[in-house]
Design a protein that fits this description.
By secondary structure, the protein is mostly helical. It has seven helices and no strands. The chain has helices spanning about 5-10, 15-20, 25-35, 40-50, 70-80, 90, 105-110.
Length: about 110
């Protein structure tokens, strides 16, 4: 996955120009590129759209062995639909420690076996 810094370096676009395109401040883009800030879900999505998918929304969530990419992607979809203003950082904290996403139907089937 491409980082925002790598995207801007590759395209030669200035941080201030990119900030205008995603309707934020140059300072925010600078902090995002430096890794000192995680964007809101709305901003992360705006960055993905503005970069035509090169900087994906899930790049902002640190993956760990207990948080597989599939769980992160699923969490982003849920968060986009139900928690528009939640930060990715807060969303990542809701991943199960095992990295597995379970549902009641799976648990019921296992209990019957």
């Amino acid at each position: 996955m491409t980082t925002l810094r790598a995207y801007l370096d590759k395209t030669g676009e200035k941080q201030s120009e990119f900030a205008d395109r995603v309707q934020t401040t140059p300072a925010t883009i600078s902090r995002l590129c430096a890794g000192n800030l995680k964007p809101s879900l709305d901003l992360a999505h705006a960055i993905e759209v503005a970069t035509r998918g090169e900087v994906r929304t899930e790049v902002w969530i640190a993956r760990t062995p207990s948080a597989p990419a599939e769980a992160i992607v699923g969490l982003i979809v849920v968060a986009k639909e139900g928690e528009k203003h939640a930060t990715l950082n807060a969303a990542a904290e809701h991943l199960p420690s095992t990295g597995q996403i379970s549902d009641a139907s799976t648990a019921d089937e296992e209990a019957r076996s």
